[in-house]
Amino acid sequence: MPELLARYRNPETPAARAIMDVAIDARRLGHPPAIPHALLEHAAPGYLDDHQWDQAGDDWLERALAFTGNPCHGVPGPLTRIRPRPTELATAGGPHYRLADALEQTGHTERAAVFPPDSFWTAAATITNPEVLDQLGIQALSRGRYQHAATLFQHAADRGHRSALRELGRLRERAGDHAGAEALAMRSADLGYTAPTLDRAEVRKAAGDHAAAEGLYRDAANRGDPAALSGLAALRGRAGDTAGAEALAIQAADLGHPIGLLWVAMQREEAGDRMGAEALARQAAEYEFLVPLGVLAHLRERHGDYATAEALAVQGVERDDPEALGLMARLRDRAGDHSGAEALALEASNRGDPNAVTEFARYLRNDLGERSRAEAFVERAVDRGDLFALGDLADIRVEVGDYAGAEALAMRAAVLGDTAVLVILAARRAEAGDHSGAEALYQRAVEHGDTMALRELAQMRNDLNDHAGAAELFLQAVNCGETSALNDLARLRDQTGDHLDADRIRRFGLTSDGKPAISLDVNPPTAETSDRMCGSGEAREG
User: Domain residues for 323?
Assistant: First the structure.
């Protein structure tokens, strides 16, 4: 709706734009469609600079809502009040408002790399719905704002949301507050929720403290968690207790958690006991758990035992495992049935294996060196409607040096959501010294929603010693929810010698404006106090 967008871009007052941005941010971060009046009222001031706020007037909100609620040529305004039905109870928090779909879609794209100000998160923390609190906490977490995430998870947990308690424990653990994380795990366990205990077991196992890990697994198992039995099975298997590991894995499978059988089967495979591994995989299949059969079949193929691989794949096909069809395709091809093999690969794609065409094409190119046949196969897949195979076709064009053709295909694939080849082409341009061409391709990928491309572009800037430009792009990626870019920011600080801030980023994340946080507390201690804590090795702030 052009008129709606025009009113968004040219509002009557800055406050009108502010409440629309609050609503956009709320929706793109997972708030339900009904936006409460209180959220608009308390968040919007943080979207205005000092001059705008001074000029807003006491009736700023009423004027803003009147502007956004005014219809446009008979179409509802950008942000309109939801009229409750007579049979509905009065909603908590006063009136609620709905953002126009067109504005929501535009704002979702245009504000993707914008992190809302503190006022938004302070207002969000007053929401009483634990599901909404948890969802907003997850969004803050994915954007590296651990302080806001911790606050929201705490409020959600206080209202009975168990997984929020788990996320809060993980934040405490990351921050170095091991006692706080343990207390939260115990609180969860007392409520019958043992997932945080398993998290702590995994942390102890990763640190090499297997005795502590086993104790935590046993505590969770004694409270009835079958996943803990699987974890114990893996530990016992690593310790050489194969009989004990198998017994625990079977016990877990009987309780509905058969993945432990896969772990023990893989340990048997690594130890050279192929018959034992296969027996456990077959046992797992009896629990309708197909993964072990597929994993073992792929391993047998890799080791050249094609007969056993095919036998296992046949069992997978009989149990409607689409990935088994992809494996069968390669095995048929090795046996000389090329047309039958290609038909199986296409059927696997049709039946839900998203990687079937790609894996078969790579098998033809990389294992057999048959590039022309791979190209013909992928073209056939595209002709049959598998448009995601465009990326594979573009990859083949790159191999033969047809970069123009590859870019054209990559753009077609990007429109459908597959930007991988654009990123590959950008990297090749960068390697050839064409950094401006590489940046253009990275930006195209970003325009199609590939936030990983922002990381790649940032790394290219860093390689060119543009550390400030790299930091800005890494921060954009974090703001878009590309969590791994937070580690890139920390690594960049280490690279430039700022080890203190690198440690802060890893432990506490970022403030709303993108600076390293010094605590999980939104009202943290002074930087001087935090520096002493970081340097002394004392119990760290959580």
Answer: 290-376
Helix (H, G, I), strand (E, B) or coil at 80: strand
Residues 6+ apart with CB under 8 A from 80: 68, 69, 97, 98, 100
Determine the pLDDT at residue 248: 92
The mean pLDDT value of the chain amounts to 89
Mean per-residue pLDDT, 84-96: 69
Pick 362 or 399 by higher pLDDT: 362
> What CA–CA distance (Å, rounded) separates 127 from 34?
12
CA distance 370 to 362: 9
Instruction: Tell me the three state secondary structure of residue 358.
Output: helix
Nearest CA to 440 out of 453, 452, 431, 449 is that of 453
The pLDDT of residue 383? 84
- Residues 93, 97, 101, 106, Cα dihedral to 10°: -80
pLDDT of 202-259, one tens digit each?
Answer: 999 998 999 999 999 999 999 999 999 999 999 998 888 888 988 998 999 889 898 8
400 in any annotated domain: no
Q: Which burial class, exposed, middle or buried, applies to 301 when counting CB atoms under 10 A from its CB (0-12, 13-18, 19+)?
A: buried
- Tokens 């794609």, residue? 349
Q: How far apart are CA 471 and CA 473, in angstroms?
A: 5
**In sequence order, what E strands does 104-226 have?**
none
Whole-number Å distance between alpha carbons of 542 and 173 = 8
How many domains does one find in the chain?
Answer: 1
- Mean pLDDT value of segment 329-334: 90
Amino acid at 174: R
Please indicate, yes or no, if residue 391 is contained in any of the structural domains. no
What confidence tens digit (pLDDT) does each residue in 504-538 have? 999 999 999 999 999 998 665 444 434 433 443 33
CB-based burial, 471-500: b 16+ in 10 Å, e otherwise: bebbbbbbbbbbeebbebbbebbeeeeeeb
Place of tokens 């069809």: 325
Contact call for residues 136 and 478 (beta carbons, < 8 A): no
Q: How many residues does the chain have?
A: 542
CATH of the domain at 350: 1.25.40
Residue 231 Ramachandran class (φ > 0 left, ψ -120 to 50 alpha, else beta)? alpha
**Which of the 8 DSSP states describes residue 500?**
H
For 367-445, where are the E strands, in sequence order?
Answer: none
Note the pLDDT of residue 489: 97
Q: What proportions of the chain, in percent to the nearest 5, are helix, strand and coil?
A: 70, 0, 30
Residue 466 lies in a domain: no
258: Cα separation from own chain's centroid: 25
Whether 332 maps to a domain, the answer reads yes
d(C-alpha 367, C-alpha 355), whole Å: 17
pTM of the model: 0.81
> What is the C-alpha to C-alpha distance for residues 404 and 345, in angstroms, rounded to an integer?
29
Instruction: With residue 98 as reference, give the H or E element that holds it.
Output: strand 96-99
